[in-house]
Design goal:
This is UDP-N-acetylglucosamine 1-carboxyvinyltransferase. The chain has 14 helices and 24 strands. It is α/β, with parallel strands linked by helices. The structure holds uridine-diphosphate-N-acetylglucosamine and phosphoenolpyruvate.
Amino acid sequence: MDKLRITGGRTLHGEVEISGAKNAALPELCATLLTDEPVTLTNVPRLRDIATMRSLLDHMGVRTATHGERGGMDFHAGGPITPEAPYELVKTMRASVLVLGPLLARFGHARVSLPGGCAIGARPVDQHIKGLQAMGADIVVEHGYMVARLPSGRSRLKGARIATDMVTVTGTENFLMAAALADGETVLENAAQEPEIPDLAEMLIAMGAKIEGHGTSRIHVQGVERLHGCRHQVVADRIEAGTFLCAVAATGGEVVLRHGRADHLEAVIDKLREAGAVIEAGEGFIRVRSEGRLKAQSFRTTEYPGFPTDMQAQFMALNCIAQGTSTVTETIFENRFMHVSELMRLGARIQIDGKVAVVEGVERLSGATVMATDLRASASLVIAGLVADGETIVDRIYHLDRGYDQMETKLRAIGADIERIR
Ligand SMILES: CC(=O)N[C@H]1[C@@H](OP(=O)(O)OP(=O)(O)OC[C@H]2O[C@@H](n3ccc(=O)[nH]c3=O)[C@H](O)[C@@H]2O)O[C@H](CO)[C@@H](O)[C@@H]1O
Ligand SMILES: C=C(OP(=O)(O)O)C(=O)O
């Protein structure tokens, strides 16, 4: 099993290219199921989750290929498609639930395994099921599978008003894709506004979908009978960019993130500035400079445009060595503090009380062997390892490979002492 060996204490200098967003690319790969014409995506990141999603599409009969362009991938769901997502292929990736909407919308039936258990919380899919039922689908859960079909006599989902009990990102994406091919108008109330949603909507519009209001909490979709092929560039990964910003802020140094979108990261950038980092941004770049000890920042995770839960662990690593005491409140997932015990093995002082972690900044961390428990927890341990004295070994980095495109190569290029070992 791969591990990372990090020797801490180096400042970071240079440039990093930010990859395409995992959380935009995953629904966009699923959207290729909506048409029998070829679709080209560019800027698809090289990640384990993308490879898993590609295997799932291959299994269904979609022809997939990579090409020379940066992150270029071609998809063609023009032949016979088996609308089934087996457990073996979906167990490691929750985003596999995103094939349900497109399969139902185009083929009228689907059999999709419930996604596997996830360390950060229970993560039910009840809202996905309820919303698609409101669009006329019959869905039963049996033997661990969602078995969905249209009632006899119907060939398309029907437009509906869907108001979810909470804001759900992949739920909104499933409904968008399903509604694009439905009969009539769908209105999504309480829709997620994360930048990955408008990016998916832009792709669907390029395929011929009629969508308005994406990027707000109310989205209108006028269903069309068929969608055509398109070419779409995956938006830059705001969480990868935020992770590098926190890494440089914590270690000190000056780094430019190419393709970074500061407008998608305002909540994180505001906190980094308050902490003392200097951040400038322009068209397609973000520059971060940091020296000396930062001031700890309290924050609370909320839906976009609030502070993203996917940046909580990385910012907490920074708070561990900042001056002062901070509170970190996690409101989205009930079990997203698993990095805390590992950060404490490096010398961090943290106490958890329900949804709140109280972090007392210390002057230094000291390297140790730690275990990654989930994707962003892994990134927080890497940041902590970069600032800790001596050697840190981060074990189980298959979590990191799910969502970061060559993280150690990018960090080494800006001066980090980090290597992958087996
Ligand atoms: C592939 C992808 O894009 N993943 C992101 C997506 O996950 P994902 O879309 O799975 O997260 P949601 O926005 O759906 O989850 C928000 C909350 O709603 C709950 N919920 C959700 C759906 C449902 O049917 N029932 C239910 O109870 C969840 O358990 C969670 O507590 O948004 C999360 C919140 O920004 C991010 O952390 C993930 O990185
Ligand atoms: C939780 C995450 O991803 P997923 O929803 O794919 O598990 C994440 O990207 O931080």
